[in-house]
Design brief:
2 copies of one chain form a homodimer.
Chain A (H helix, E strand, L loop, with lengths): L2 E4 L7 H16 L6 E3 L7 H9 L2 E3 L10 E4 L6 H9 L3 E4 L3 H15 L3 E5 L5 H12 L4 E4 L6 H4 L3 E6 L5 H14 L2 E5 L4 H13 L5 E5 L5 H13 L3 E4 L15 E6 L5 H16 L6
Chain lengths: 291, 291
């Protein structure tokens, strides 16, 4: 009988749980005929987005907004000028920006006030980063996004550099960036804005991956934090697979497997994790596979 | 014919050149019968210390100081209470503390004022570190010396940590310390006090060591920065040897050598480097060795 071990801290983080709850509450408050939209998919998970659709909460795609509509800012946050625009359109704006992301917005402006050039360690095209850059512009700050060590060149020109991170940033890369800056610039100030949930989730799979025969990482194929979980696990265990849903599981992955480890990205709801577990159990009970 | 390549930035740094010059000037100013002492050997190099002795500049050992004597504080610096003591004894105190070391003294007090717990990356028993800790005490700061990553535990208890380094600190270890702190503490401020001379000297031997057949590192056996040069070179080239004087050179080291690389610690005067070069040339012209 196969043993299935769920890594600690797998799945939804605090900020996403909160955003989903705020969306559900908003849809309950809206009167008959009122509309509730989220500004982009509320999380990187199409299945959870579909579940919310069934509750009347739709991602805003090409739809025209009307005054009185409810619009939910998802946990990633948005630039402040964008939020202002929404309010000026007479919309009911519900801000579900993760409090940890709000802390990054505050940090870049505090560092700007203190005279630092900002290094934001993160992915250039990530909505959270785009939102944070908006706050940096709004407080007249200067800065750059650092995705590779090469991106640091811009920062080396400044004597005072302040560093923050995208909340889902990988700790190892963050350490490297800070280390390099420490020997290049005269004065460095670092505000560690990496969310604990992410590092605990990464740490848990780092511990678990070498101790199991197969690792299944569940989460959106377009989710940065899920991809990072996959890469961490894959390095420690070549039998690592990234799936979004249980249908993608292949029986041959589990041949002779005695222990299967599971983790899931920040946007994966518990009900999907459960479906994957059930499907692995089914697969393993089939006669052709010996797990 | 063997080729001898001297690594860039080998030998005396700015601070040591300045200290030696200040000592020589002081001895010229002193009237007949006046005495000039240095508080400990002015540099980690017994040969240069002997040369200064011949100019009437003696390291203070067990001698009794008398009012009117000149005492030179060497480039490492000393705790401020110790300097005060010397002045109260009626001595003529010449402060040859390296300006880069003075910058560390200022940095720990500035960071203390801003509410940071201090991490001083350096060697616990190094005179420079002992001096800096004196300045930290004098401005009522709290801090710890970090020599190994284990020493960081003390700092992890604090939310705000400020980092400085012994001026001769190895950059790679400094990067690691700063990186670890960046993900542990909430707010980190780093003032890079590593002296450029040290890193340039290290960089130069890192580039040179793999390109030569033998590396000779010249400098006091008790000099921390020389030992680091030795370790950097040894990792890249197993035929690396640490000597203080040309007499220690062994002909067999140079068997079949075509290129010999030379570097020297911050306390090695040029005249010793020249003697080593001449001795290598002699050794290589002897018939039993084929370099």
């Amino acid at each position: 009988m196969v043993e299935i071990v769920i890594a600690e801290h797998a799945g939804f983080c605090f900020g996403v749980k909160r955003a989903v709850k705020l969306a559900e509450e908003s849809s309950k408050k809206v009167k008959e005929g009122g509309r509730v939209f989220t500004l982009g998919p509320i999380i990187h998970n199409p299945q959870e987005v579909n579940r919310l659709k069934s509750l009347g909460i739709e991602p805003l795609e090409n739809k025209e907004l009307k005054p009185g509509d409810t619009i939910i800012i998802r946990s990633h946050g948005i630039p402040p000028e964008k939020e202002q625009e929404l309010k000026e359109k007479g919309l009911n704006v519900v801000d579900a920006t993760c409090p940890y992301v709000k802390a990054v917005h505050e940090a870049v402006c505090k560092l700007t006030e203190e005279g630092y050039f900002i290094v934001l360690v993160g992915e250039k095209n990530h909505p959270e980063v785009i939102g944070t850059l908006g706050y940096l512009r709004a407080c007249n700050g200067k800065g750059t996004v650092v995705e590779t060590l090469d991106d640091l060149r811009e920062a080396f020109k400044y004597e005072k550099v302040g560093v923050v991170a995208q909340t889902t940033q990988n700790e190892e890369f963050f350490k490297k960036v800070v280390g390099e800056l420490a020997v290049w610039v005269k004065e460095l100030k670092v505000i560690n804005t990496i969310c604990n949930a992410t590092s605990l989730r990464q740490e848990a799979i780092r511990n678990l991956a070498p101790k199991v025969d197969v690792v299944i990482v569940i989460g959106g194929k377009n989710s940065g934090n899920t991809r990072r979980l996959y890469h961490i696990a894959k390095e420690l265990n070549p039998n690592t697979y990234h799936i979004e849903m249980e249908e993608e599981l292949k029986p041959e992955w589990f041949k002779n497997a005695k222990r299967v480890g599971i983790t899931a990205g920040a946007s994966t709801p518990d009900w999907i994790i459960e479906r994957v577990i059930n499907r692995i159990k089914e697969v393993c009970s089939e006669s052709l596979v010996y797990c």
